[in-house]
């Protein structure tokens, strides 16, 4: 059953159109190179339109994996594909695992606090999610490989891709958690101080410090770098011909690279060039 006729799940014609539009996404991100206006996270602004950080993350990120899973469920029936090969389901599972962590677990369970997000950024993020999910979902659920023969001879590459994806995800989680620990520690200190002085506990929601563990020693955005590695692993699983996985990697880099570079400027402005030291933004020793 289609939720939106010919769009969810997409007909082949619409899927091709979506994929073409999605490949042009880096053009939109050019704006990020010419302005520092990016109303979320460290650079969030005060606005009455702001969406609370945690709910913004849930609502802008969750539609991605839900859309992809819906395509996996509905499109094969529509196309008369009896069952999809295990490799298609493996990729759908990898995508779902990542976004269960990013869209549900991180904001609702793990993150101590998240800055509010302006609807403009929220709208761009949900567009990213929907276009990406339809592009990947269409490929995985009927317009890409549909029989196990389509994957033949690729077992070792698939295994290698899964290993790279897994390490990338774990490393992304590790560095995310290093940032969380800064706020958790600030909360513990604020509670201790409040107890000792008999005053109310100070708000630590906008406390920022220079993270130092793991790859933070070399770069300020290792969690971004590890996420790129993760999705490169995903692309390796899909293979060179998996243009939607390649487009996903390219589009992530297009949006996260300028964010990391302007984030480097933000750290220098906040903590000083000396404290930032030789650390680069995202690629150790390079960028
Ligand atoms: N932003 C993107 O375009 C994008 C795209 C795809 C995937 N992702 C992934 O999503 C995850 C989060 O991305 P993000 O852009 O929100 O990363 P981020 O700006 O580094 O923030 C991550 C979390 O850590 C907190 N935080 C950041 N720097 C801190 C510091 N120096 N001290 C204390 N707390 C700090 C943030 O709090 P505040 O919210 O209060 O700043 C936020 O809760 C990353 O793993 C990234 O790979 C991001």
TrEMBL record:
<feature type="transmembrane region" description="Helical">
    <location>
        <begin position="55"/>
        <end position="75"/>
    </location>
</feature>
<feature type="transmembrane region" description="Helical">
    <location>
        <begin position="17"/>
        <end position="34"/>
    </location>
</feature>
<dbReference type="InterPro" id="IPR001104">
    <property type="entry name" value="3-oxo-5_a-steroid_4-DH_C"/>
</dbReference>
<keyword id="KW-1133">Transmembrane helix</keyword>
<keyword id="KW-0472">Membrane</keyword>
<keyword id="KW-0812">Transmembrane</keyword>
<comment type="similarity">
    <text>Belongs to the steroid 5-alpha reductase family.</text>
</comment>
<feature type="transmembrane region" description="Helical">
    <location>
        <begin position="87"/>
        <end position="110"/>
    </location>
</feature>
<dbReference type="GO" id="GO:0003865">
    <property type="term" value="F:3-oxo-5-alpha-steroid 4-dehydrogenase activity"/>
</dbReference>
<feature type="transmembrane region" description="Helical">
    <location>
        <begin position="122"/>
        <end position="143"/>
    </location>
</feature>
<dbReference type="GO" id="GO:0016020">
    <property type="term" value="C:membrane"/>
</dbReference>
<feature type="domain" description="3-oxo-5-alpha-steroid 4-dehydrogenase C-terminal">
    <location>
        <begin position="121"/>
        <end position="286"/>
    </location>
</feature>
<protein>
    <submittedName>
        <fullName>3-oxo-5-alpha-steroid 4-dehydrogenase</fullName>
    </submittedName>
</protein>
<dbReference type="Pfam" id="PF02544">
    <property type="entry name" value="Steroid_dh"/>
</dbReference>
<dbReference type="GO" id="GO:0008202">
    <property type="term" value="P:steroid metabolic process"/>
</dbReference>
<dbReference type="InterPro" id="IPR016636">
    <property type="entry name" value="3-oxo-5-alpha-steroid_4-DH"/>
</dbReference>
<dbReference type="InterPro" id="IPR039357">
    <property type="entry name" value="SRD5A/TECR"/>
</dbReference>
<feature type="transmembrane region" description="Helical">
    <location>
        <begin position="155"/>
        <end position="174"/>
    </location>
</feature>
């Amino acid at each position: 059953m289609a939720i939106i006729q010919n769009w969810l799940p997409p007909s082949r014609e619409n899927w091709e159109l979506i994929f073409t539009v999605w490949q042009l996404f880096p053009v939109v991100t050019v704006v990020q190179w010419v302005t520092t206006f990016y109303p979320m996270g460290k650079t969030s602004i005060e606005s009455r339109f702001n969406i609370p950080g945690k709910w913004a993350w849930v609502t802008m990120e969750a539609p991605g994996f839900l859309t992809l899973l819906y395509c996996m469920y509905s499109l094969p029936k529509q196309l008369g594909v009896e069952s999809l090969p295990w490799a298609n389901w493996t990729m759908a599972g990898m995508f779902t695992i990542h976004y269960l962590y990013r869209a549900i677990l991180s904001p609702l369970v793990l993150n101590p606090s998240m800055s509010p997000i302006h609807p403009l950024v929220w709208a761009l993020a949900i567009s990213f999610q929907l276009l990406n999910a339809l592009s990947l979902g269409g490929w995985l659920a009927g317009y890409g490989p549909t029989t196990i023969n389509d994957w033949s001879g690729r077992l070792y590459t698939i295994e290698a891709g899964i290993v790279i994806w897994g390490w990338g995800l774990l490393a992304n989680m590790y560095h995310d958690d290093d940032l969380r620990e800064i706020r958790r520690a600030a909360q513990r200190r604020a509670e201790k101080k409040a107890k000792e002085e008999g005053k109310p506990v100070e708000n630590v929601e906008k406390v920022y410090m220079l993270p130092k563990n793991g790859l933070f020693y070399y770069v300020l955005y290792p969690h971004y770098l590890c996420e790129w590695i993760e999705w490169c692993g995903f692309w390796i699983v899909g293979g060179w011909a998996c243009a939607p996985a390649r487009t996903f990697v390219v589009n992530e880099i297009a949006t996260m690279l300028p964010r990391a570079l302007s984030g480097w400027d933000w750290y220098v402005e906040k903590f000083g060039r000396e404290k930032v030291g030789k650390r680069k933004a995202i690629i150790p020793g390079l960028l």
